[in-house]
Amino acid sequence: MSAKKRKTVFALGAFACMVMGMFYGSKSVSTSQSIMTALPTASTTTPAPSMIPSPTKYPDPIYYVDCSASTNGDSSQDSPWNALATVNATTFAPGDQILLMRGTVCVGELWPKGSGVDGNPIIISAYSTGARPIIDGNNALAPVVTIKDQNYWSFNSLEVRNSTGLGLSVDGSPGLDLHGFILTNLYVHDGGLNDGQHLILIGQWYLLKSEIQEEAG
């Protein structure tokens, strides 16, 4: 059965939708150098605390994506990735950020791998200035954005369009509990599932226009 296009659009505003908690999928949804020195006879002396170096804290990685770039770079801001396929082939870790260039269009499916943890999700959002980055299903696939059997993801400032069914789907295998999803400032449109109403699926819940809080401005 052909999916019915939904021409009525909706936006998830800046405070639009936060979905956190447990969802059930059963219903859907170094070159290093070694230096060796002669050691004295065994000593029981314990180094003073000030002599023990603290572990270095590195910032969480940021992966930049610009689908208008002519070459597929190393994901730095100066040399961003230019294809969703590169994102989809990467397993991300808690705290990682995937930032899409504003004012650009990426065609195809977005399905990054990996999971965040409670208090440190994986973030998909936008960088630079301009309109939200667009993920376009090109009227050829559904969902356009997929998360499956994964936890703790945050989606912010994205436009998702032209699916043949769902625009964004968070789903799990039967009996698997899913946790921690935040959806903010999303604009999902021109798609629909069966009755033309369902564009976002979180676990066993479909989000409808009537179920979404919108804020002016």
Secondary structure blueprint with pairings:
Blueprint: E1 10-11, E2 17-24, E3 62-65, H1 84-88, E4 91-92, E5 97-101, E6 105-107, E7 113-114, E8 122-127, E9 134-136, E10 145-148, E11 153-161, E12 168-171, E13 177-189, E14 200-202, E15 205-207
Provide a descriptive summary of the structure in words.
With about 220 residues, the protein is mainly β. It has one domain (about 10-20, about 60-210). It has 1 helix and 15 strands; from the N terminus they run E-E-E-H-E-E-E-E-E-E-E-E-E-E-E-E. The protein has one helix at about 85-90; strands at about 10, 15-25, 60-65, 90, 95-100, 105, 115, 120-125, 135, 145-150, 155-160, 170, 175-190, 200, 205. Strand 14 and strand 15 (about 205) form a beta hairpin. It is globular, with a radius of gyration of 22 Å. Mean pLDDT is about 75; it is low at about 1-45 and about 210-215.
Give a concise summary:
With 217 residues, the chain is mainly beta. It has one helix at residues 84-88, and strands spanning 10-11, 17-24, 62-65, 91-92, 97-101, 105-107, 113-114, 122-127, 134-136, 145-148, 153-161, 168-171, 177-189, 200-202, 205-207.
The tally of beta strands, per DSSP, is: 15
Number of helices in the DSSP assignment: 1
Mean pLDDT: 76
* Tertiary shape: globular
